[in-house]
Amino acid sequence: MGHGHGHGTAGTGAKHLNRLWVAFAIGAAFMVIEFAVGLTTGSLALISDAAHMLTDVLGVGMALAAILLARRAGAKGSRTFGLYRAEVLAALANAVLLFGVAGYVVFEAVRRFDDPPAVPGLPVVLAATAGLVANLVSFFVLRDGAKESINVRGAYLEVLADLIGSVGVLVSGVVTLVFGWRYADPVMGVAIGLFVLPRTYRLAASALRILFQHAPERLDVAEVQADLGRLPGVAEAHDLHVWTLTSGMEVASAHLTTHPDVDPAQVLRAAQDLLSGRYHIEHATLQVEPSDCAQRCREISW
Q1: 221-299 belongs to which CATH class?
Q2: For 111-164, what is each residue's pLDDT tens digit?
Q3: For a designed S-S bond to 30, which of 14, 56, 134, 150 qualifies (C-beta 3.0 to 4.6 A apart)?
């Protein structure tokens, strides 16, 4: 059996925990500001951006909780894979929150088209500028971690979407301030909602792929099986499973049927080197078996 855990949650958690704390504090502070000004002025664009920032805060908070949980609880007892899936569940919860907020924003904005309320532009501009600065800081704080962790990527995508939202609110505030056009606020509300939805879908799809134990998108499972079957001494590779435990932690298991008089240890090492070197799978459970044992696998329906 080949051991080794790439750069998974434990490493990612240690590396990015402080950055998440910074993003959490900044988001919480400016969320309060946007909510206060939005409710005072009646700006739907600002309220929706503040609600979206609330999902940022909740999302980063869940990311923090998931990383802390995964760091403290490794594999023990019945938890043979630890609690690494906690970050995937957090990412999926973030996606659900974003779907809800985006749907509400679009619904409320469309409802206001019949009689758009007068919204004072200057307070909206000032609050949107403050929110834009906050999102820019959080964006750069989380950008590197988003490349390594689906959990951090969830928080990063929320901040990115909210960054665009803050720009939109700023534009609508300026248009309202300069031209007095009442439709600027609901129009921007719809635009923000429609911008968020496809990004949220992709995040949810990535999390569900992991939870349903699909093979990583970058891998061609048939190709991996064929390469294992072509190793010296291997008659057949079967019962291959490849899945993602969490970000950066891909796992494989397979049975390798060997020709007579083949050294199983050499076959095992060759298979481990193949999976690690070519496919970047460091943790693989490989059963090397003589040809008369393969029939058992064929009798199992799944």
Answers
A1: alpha beta
A2: 878 777 777 778 888 888 888 888 888 888 887 777 777 767 777 877 877 787
A3: 134
